[in-house]
Design a protein that fits this description.
There is one protein chain. The protein is mainly alpha-helical. It has helices at residues 2-5, 10-37, 44-60, 65-88, 96-118, 144-166, 168-178, 180-185, 190-215, 225-238, 243-263, 272-286, and strands spanning 123-124, 134-137, 140-143, 218-219. The protein has a two-stranded antiparallel ribbon with strand order 1-4. Strand 2 (134-137) and strand 3 form a beta hairpin. The longest helix has 28 residues, at 10-37. It is globular, with a radius of gyration of 19 Å. It starts with a helix and ends in a 15-residue tail after the last helix.
């Protein structure tokens, strides 16, 4: 295996960077909801799946790209708001375990609906296939989606940073992530903050759906399920209490997955998840609070 890493080329590095960028967006989307609600949303992958199916349907109906992408965003955002209003808000006063089980139930419900509606073979989203064609940069053929993913992820993370640091609602979201109950006592409107976090998380899920659909046009009911599990592990490794640490964790685990996918032979690619989760266990044994969080603890009086 060590010899395989010597064969990593620029194409593999570029693809690993693109996958890391996509996973970083997924991680910050999951981290936003966790920061405000202290909720690990296992149904996040099904939001990505819904957006991918929206793109596949738009492609089947012959819609142009400029109409298909807004349709994808509309489906994911509406589904995010419905998930919050119908499931998360009524359970907000219950224990975290109850809400965690609810996200599992929502995830499998949406997956079952997709299975009944679209069948196990799924649909093909071909309208964005041109983004999977390569650009020749130097002597390296780099897919367009690789460059697009890195640029879009960087822009989204920059805009999100400006929102959290320079706006009133961003300040309220950061205060809520530190201590939600105290923030409410100080006048923070809980429903407004949670609604903004849910919408931002849904918008990031729609962006991820577009980029993953370009790389994998075949959309099935388990679309993005594996990616969500790996990103959740990355969020835990990075540190769930801060958006920056969660983002770095998602990028790190995505980049590592991309490198392993390019370094390992095809007949050994099924071991990628094994290597990833062994590394996750080792990191958590050494840094249980997260790889990108401060190790110091604060005693509350």
């Amino acid at each position: 295996m060590m010899l395989a890493f010597w064969n990593i080329d620029w194409q593999t590095l570029a693809d690993a960077l693109a996958l890391g960028a996509i996973y970083a967006l997924m991680a910050v989307g999951i981290g936003l909801v966790f920061g405000v609600l202290r909720l690990v949303n296992f149904a996040y992958g099904q939001l990505v799946m819904a957006g991918a199916f929206a793109l596949a349907l738009a492609s089947q109906w012959g819609w142009p790209v400029w109409a298909a992408i807004p349709f994808c965003f509309a489906v994911v955002l509406v589904l995010s708001l419905l998930m919050d209003r119908l499931v998360f808000r009524p359970l907000r006063g219950h224990s975290p375990v109850v809400m965690l089980v609810a996200t599992f139930a929502v995830a499998f419900l949406l997956q079952s609906i997709a299975l009944i509606w679209f069948g196990s073979l799924g649909k093909i989203a071909a309208s964005l296939a041109y983004l999977n064609q390569p650009w020749t940069i130097g002597h390296v053929d780099i897919r367009k989606i690789t460059v697009v993913s890195i640029v879009v992820a960087a822009c989204c993370l920059l805009l999100l940073h400006l929102l959290l640091e320079r706006t009133e609602v961003g300040l309220h979201m950061r205060a809520s992530s530190l201590d939600f109950q105290t923030a409410r006592l100080l006048g923070v409107r809980a429903n407004r903050v949670i609604g903004v976090a849910v919408l931002l998380s849904g918008a990031l899920a729609a962006v991820v759906a577009v980029m993953l659909t370009v790389q994998n046009p075949l959309v099935t009911p388990d679309f993005a399920l594996r990616d969500t599990i790996i990103v959740l592990a990355g969020v835990v490794v990075g540190g769930m209490n801060r958006p920056v640490s969660a983002t770095l964790g998602g990028f790190t685990i995505g980049f590592a997955s991309g490198l392993l996918g390019g370094a390992l032979p095809t007949n050994e690619s099924q071991y990628i998840d094994t290597f990833i989760f062994v590394a996750v266990i080792i990191v958590l044994l050494i840094r249980p609070n997260g790889l990108f969080t401060r190790s110091t603890t604060v005693e509350r009086v």
